[in-house]
Specification:
- By secondary structure, the chain is of the alpha+beta class.
- The chain has one domain: 3-Layer(aba) Sandwich (Glutaredoxin), CATH 3.40.30.10.
């Protein structure tokens, strides 16, 4: 599973990356975490608000940094 964090590197983006890593680890998932900071690449996903999270290229949400419990539901 490829978990992609889309954002410019702001504090919320870092928090989302941290929470996503924790959620995936707690679920025992085999995953790769990729941070995408290039605005052109972010726009290719159709994302207008950051941070955003994509799983295997499919955007799950944007504009927020959910807690670990919510991310577990998304990643299952």
């Amino acid at each position: 599973m490829k978990i992609q964090i889309l954002g410019t590197g702001c504090q919320k983006c870092d928090k989302l990356a941290e929470n996503a890593k924790q959620a995936a680890t707690e679920l025992g998932l085999d995953f790769e975490l990729e941070k995408i900071t290039d605005l052109n690449r972010i726009m290719e996903f159709g994302v207008m608000l950051t941070p955003a999270l994509a799983v295997d290229g499919d955007v799950k949400f944007s504009g927020k940094a959910p807690a670990v419990a919510e991310l577990k539901k998304i990643l299952q």
